[in-house]
Amino acid sequence: MKSQKLFILLLIITIGFNSNAQRNKELEKEIIERKVDTTFTVEETTENFLLFHNNMKLMKMDEELENQYANIVLNAAARMRRLDDKDKNYTKEERRALFEGMLAELNNELKGILSADQFALHQKNFNVILERFYKKANWNPKED
Known about the structure:
This protein has five helices and no strands. The longest helix has 33 residues, at 2-34. It is 77% helix and 0% strand.
């Protein structure tokens, strides 16, 4: 009797794990299908992050401002990266307009927390990464 209950319990657990694993695989597949190739390789992304981090240190912010700044910039970058998800169905022109709008929002938010000198350094440093992005995306940086 105990072995039958143990067998049934193991069977239920196994079925539960299998169905959960199947759901996870389906969800993972759906996410992969929605996402297109990323603009930057892993190495380029790492290089951009290190450039951002090193240049951020040059801005001479206190720890609280540095954390706030990094949080704002990295969250904006994450939203911008999602513009090319397949489920968005944006045209190149729509993506560009949305990207430029997000960039303007980012700069406006940063103007509110950074000094004029810090903001000028941000723009100088961030523009290096933007130029790389524009080149990869085949966008003219001065395009309106």
